[in-house]
Amino acid sequence: MARDYDFSEGYGPWLVDEISWVYSLNKISKPPEEFGIFRDFKALWDSKRREGRLPAWTDFAFEEFAPWWGQLALEDIIPGPEYDTVFRLWGTALTQLLDTELTGKNLRSTFDTAYNEIEIPLFERIAGEHLIVVSFGPMNWTNLGQWSIADKVAFIQMPLATDGEHVDKILSLVLEIDDDSDLPWTPVNTGEAEPGA
Fold it and tell me: How far apart are CA 57 and CA 49, in angstroms?
């Protein structure tokens, strides 16, 4: 696949024309108010950090996610030479919104090669560098020809670590939105370093 973006360095945002999605990487130190519509979710995540360590899934009470019930996904990272995850939680609202049920399914075997080539390098950086991904794009995942005109969703994907250091889960929130005006980027570029990086 031809690619004019490089997820291995910089922070984006990057526009990926093949799938009409925009991606950005964010340092975990970025304050919640800079995460737009995800500010409250980031504030909750921050509240579980202790002495700079990453939160664990067990640090959260499920009731704390009440504003977002049905819109959450949780992935377990599968140890091995290639990055892969299994979806342990896939919210009911996500199943309806995205017309797919992913609970119990593996990332690599569920999505096609083009998608994996785009997304897996980002996930590897979440885990390896303790970064947060924010993405925005069309929610029609089953018909590539309709992606550019489908309704839009935004994802935030955040690292979790049982031991506070080694990422073993990815927590995601998915929101249906009209445009990207309340997301943490302006404008789309080709990988310039995040301010203060």
Answer: 11
